[in-house]
Amino acid sequence: MGLRTVHFPHILAEWPELDWFEILSENFMDTGGRPAYVLDRVAERYPVVMHGVSMSVGSTDPINFEYLKKLKALAKRTKARWISDHLCWTGVSGKNT
After folding, report:
1. Contact at 8 Å (CB) between 49 and 21?
2. Is residue 34 part of a domain?
3. Strand pairing of 83-85 and 48-52?
């Protein structure tokens, strides 16, 4: 099940019987407030897996070490079971396309 803001009220009220939650990494890297609060509560009760859309492994741009630093911190915070991303080109010259 994808952890999306529209699901927050139901999840917090019902704690549904699920095997794990998937998060979009970029949605939680630089956020605080309610999304961070809900993610922390979910990570206490469920395994979390992370899927990203901005690593841009296939790009000619250099590796974005700041992105990787944030990704690592989020993985540590959520105790992510695994991390995935698209093995493709998603941007050039530092801009996603």
Report:
1. yes
2. yes
3. parallel
> Does the residue 70 lie in any domain?
yes
Q: Which domain holds residue 13?
A: 5-90
Q: Which two tokens stand for residue 21?
A: 């939650």
42-89 pLDDT, tens digit per residue, is 999 999 999 998 888 877 888 889 999 999 999 999 999 999 998 776
What pLDDT, in 10s, does the model give residues 79-88? Answer: 999 999 987 7
Q: How many domains does the chain have?
A: 1
Maximum Cα–Cα distance across the chain: 45
The answer to whether residue 91 scores a pLDDT higher than 70 is no
The HSE-up count of residue 35 (CA atoms within 13 Å, CB side) is: 15
- Does 96 fall in a domain? no
**Does 97 reside within a domain?**
no
Strand runs labelled E in the chain: 21-24, 48-52, 83-85, 91-92, 95-96
